[in-house]
From TrEMBL:
GO molecular function: UDP-glucose 4-epimerase activity
Source organism (scientific name): Bombella pollinis
Enzyme class label: isomerase
Protein name as annotated: UDP-glucose 4-epimerase
Lineage of the organism: Bacteria, Pseudomonadati, Pseudomonadota, Alphaproteobacteria, Acetobacterales
Pathway: Carbohydrate metabolism; galactose metabolism
Length: 328
């Protein structure tokens, strides 16, 4: 099948594009390379450097169909930055997504898979989050993703566009064969930051907040391996033949920030230098999902269920790529 992947030069998008190619599909990637990397584009994928705000170029590409589906990963995605520039995040993420959704309707694309987020939730308790848990975004970033989910709902009701909303919890790790990894500029994710601090490539890690209502006072998160996420996308694409779906993607296990630091030291065999920093605005205390729905309906079973195994793949990639994708 022919799939169009926006943001396919980014972390999750590149891993999903690689999985599609390995399943025998034809993949075309759209990315403006503002945060993605040309070196992350998998071998075999066609590539167009294009911004989704450029509706003329976007529609020209969509008109070159037929497309069996569009997978949408392109977005601004930093919680902290969205708190500093809320209207920029809301405007950018909404406009680019609406341009894409409208184009898919215009050119009769039958399936749309959306990269959503656990940031839709603002959980303060210990109950795992299901797809039916109350939506209460704690940041403009999360709000922008929720608004896009609602736009897709109307695209289905009015135009029949079948969609899947995949709400990631914390994507982590790297391709087991070392072909792809995580490289953000700036990096804000805990595992790559901690790995680089342990390797002496950056100053001691700053851990945001020690007064959350959790057992050790630090945030608790559900980490899911990026290749397991990719497999969930493949399964969901097939499911869209029978209607739209929404799934939470995580392992159902919660790890505190201090748990992660200990696991980093176990995997690397190095002492991790770190210190406390004030809370980061917009961070919920606990984000852990109940993945029952996707496991029951699609048979999805994450292969990486131990946090050390997830970290190990990220560690190997960072050892092999001390400068990330730069210079490749």
């Amino acid at each position: 099948m022919r799939y169009l992947v926006t943001g396919g030069a980014g972390f999750v998008g590149s891993h999903v594009a690689l999985a599609l190619i390995e399943h025998g599909h034809h993949v075309t990637i759209l990315d403006n390379l503002s945060t993605g990397h040309r070196a992350a584009i998998p071998t075999g994928a066609q590539f167009h450097e294009v911004d989704l705000l450029d509706t003329n170029r976007l529609n020209t590409i969509l008109a070159n169909g037929p497309w069996d589906g569009v997978l949408h990963f392109a977005a601004l995605s930093l919680v902290g930055a969205s708190m500093a520039t809320p209207y920029h995040y809301l405007r950018q993420n909404m406009l680019t997504s609406l341009n894409l959704i409208e184009g898919c309707v215009r050119y009769n694309v039958p399936r749309f898979l959306f990269s959503s987020t656990a940031a839709l939730f603002n959980n303060q308790g210990n109950t795992p989050l299901s797809e039916d848990s109350p939506i209460n975004p704690g940041s403009p970033y999360g709000e922008s993703k929720f608004l896009i989910e609602r736009a897709l709902n109307w695209a289905e009701r009015i135009h029949g566009l079948r969609y899947g909303c995949l709400r990631y919890f914390n994507a982590a790790g790297a391709d087991a064969k070392g072909r792809l990894g995580e490289d953000h500029q700036p990096e804000t994710h805990l595992i790559p930051l901690a790995l680089d601090s342990a390797l002496g490539r950056r100053p001691p890690l700053k851990l945001f907040g020690n007064d959350y209502p959790t057992p050790d006072g630090t945030c608790i998160r559900d980490y899911v391996h990026v290749s397991d996420l990719a497999e969930a996308h493949i399964l969901t694409l097939n499911r869209l033949d029978t209607g739209s779906v929404t799934y939470n993607l995580g392992t159902g296990q919660g790890f505190s920030n201090l748990n992660i630091l200990k696991a980093i030291e176990t995997v690397t065999g190095r002492e991790l230098p770190w210190d406390w920093a004030p809370r980061r605005e917009g961070d919920p205390a606990i984000l852990v999902t109940d993945p029952t729905r996707i496991r029951t309906e699609l048979g999805w079973q994450p292969r990486y269920t131990k946090i050390e195994d997830i970290i190990e793949t990220a560690f190997r990639w960072r050892l092999a790529h001390p400068n990330g994708y730069r210079g490749l």
